[in-house]
Amino acid sequence: MILPIRAYGDPVLKKQAEDIEKDHPDIQELIENMFDTMYGASGVGLAAPQVGRSVRLFIVDASPFAEPDDDGNVDPDSVGLEDFKKVFINPEIVDEEGEEWGFEEGCLSIPTIREEVIRQPELKIKYLNEKFEEQEEKFDGIAARIIQHEFDHLEGVLFTDHLNPLRRRLLKRKLSDIARGIVEVKYKMKFPIRK
Fold first, then answer.
1. Could you tell me the fold of the domain covering 5-190?
2. 165-185 pLDDT tens trace
3. Is 2 exposed, middle or buried (0-12, 13-18, 19+ CB in 10 A)?
């Protein structure tokens, strides 16, 4: 089932999410609904707070990055992403390293805005998969960036929080419009302030 994605300004997006217990009700249904919602919005990642659930869960499917462009070329940075589909429950970033790099990010909760965000290219993360099995893995490049972006949602951090104060000030009107629902989107959203 496709759920409405919470728009910028919704308090759930700025709240630190809570851990999930193994007996958490309907967790498998939530995961399934989140994948339906993410695919319906053409996203590559989605965190539970974005669908109004303040729990430490996010999903990723980076396979769209591995698709060839109109000329049939595949970005060398996206090699290995064709099968990068995962569920992260109660994740904990253990380490981040490497020379920081910029990449233009967007967010389903902040439609129409894309900005360069600086992040470290490598990370080590501990988490539980959808079967509640403990995992510890290293990721780099675009995979690491998607994880960092979605992990931020669990901490109540949006990609716009990484921008310098001047850039945030310049985006203030657009962000306010998004919160009020003055934005064109092709997926279901819930706006904190209706126009």
1. Peptide Deformylase (3.90.45)
2. 999 999 999 999 999 999 999
3. middle
